[in-house]
Design a protein that fits this description.
By secondary structure, the chain is α/β, with parallel strands linked by helices. The chain has one domain: 3-Layer(aba) Sandwich (Rossmann fold). The chain is built from 12 helices and 16 strands. The strands form 4 sheets. The protein has a 9-stranded mixed sheet with strand order 3-4-5-2-1-6-7-8-13, with helices on both faces. Helix 6 links the parallel strand 7 and strand 8. The chain is globular, with a radius of gyration of 20 Å. The model has no long low-confidence stretch (mean pLDDT about 95). The structure holds uridine-5'-diphosphate-4-deoxy-4-fluoro-alpha-D-galactose (UFG). Uridine-5'-diphosphate-4-deoxy-4-fluoro-alpha-D-galactose binds next to helix 7 and strand 10.
Length: about 375
Amino acid sequence: MTKVLLTGGAGFIGSHTGLTLLESGHQVVVVDDFSNGSAEAMRRVAELAGLGPWRQASTEHWTAADPEGGRLTLIRGDVRSPQDLDRAFTVDGGDISAVLHFAGLKAVGESMTQPLRYWDVNVTGTVRLLEAMGRHGCQTLVFSSSATLYGTTDQVPIPETAPLQPINPYGYTKAAVERLLTDVAASAPGWRIALLRYFNPVGAHPSGRIGEDPNGLPNNLFPFLCQVAAGRRRHLQVFGGDWPTPDGTGVRDYLHVMDLAEGHGRALDLLLAEPPQRLTLNLGSGRGHSVLEVVQTFEATNGLRLPYTVVARRPGDSAVSVADPREAERRMGWRTRRSLADICRDGWAWQSANPQGYRSAEKEPIGELIRAQHGS
Ligand code: UFG
């Protein structure tokens, strides 16, 4: 049974991956500052994995376990804080085999108005994490990179060898961290690093218990559309009906978050099993769907109507972004298994059961849900 550390493990992708790793027999330590993650998500991950009850082991540190050795430990902490990271690496006897680094800021528009914050959290946070890994003798890391690195390329589908040409501060920070990790891997023997370039992760766990819960107005199509369906937003705006695509709307490679979570499990297994290496993989389905196809599939799958209007293009968007995912299949036998209809069904199961996201949840301890989500 290996023990792994998930930074940002209380967020959308981290929580689904944490559950997948617990179910495949790993012990999981999560460090999260709850700036965009949820203690309620952690409570539900433990519930889905059959762990519990929660116990407070020290200030800012909670654990849910089972008699067979399953264990989820939650630490409130910031990846930029050496003290918080030391606590994460030494909790419950230490011995972390690998880190999955999800913690980071990810809103493109916000990155243009707050570049310092993005460089600090995304880049400085990774530097601090690597320093902590050095102190604690851990050299295995899976990093959440992004297809945003490919910029507005016309290449379809996009292989990992395509030029990197990010076009906003968020993208520059992801490119900088990829460069940093490449330099670190080359600097000393023993590093095992996977750079996973996500395309468009959407959907939710099929139970409807965990899902995406963005702060404020969603930037992305799928959570926005779910909130329209739930009656939280009046209508969807489709950004551009004049793209050079079959129906004029933008085409993206949407992948189910559970497929993405399983991709992390594969990458981790591969890194731990093979000799040290640096791996760069696209994680996408290899299939493109237009905005209108997503709307229509959501309506047909869930038997409801989504009001929308077609408006001007959003600055910085491209017509098509679709992964060439063959390298992930070749290297780790991974491909997406779930369809767009599965995504729409599971995403709606989550949103309809939790119309206000985790905020509508009943309050229960884990530090009274981390003092009602951060210090209040
Ligand atoms: N869209 C709409 N209306 C909305 C939101 C989006 O029509 O309200 C359209 C966009 O124009 C685009 C498609 O839906 O054609 C998908 O847009 P998203 O914002 O959901 O996703 P993006 O492809 O723009 O970006 C996402 C992540 C980035 C990541 C990128 C990788 O937000 O962080 O995928 O390609 F870098």
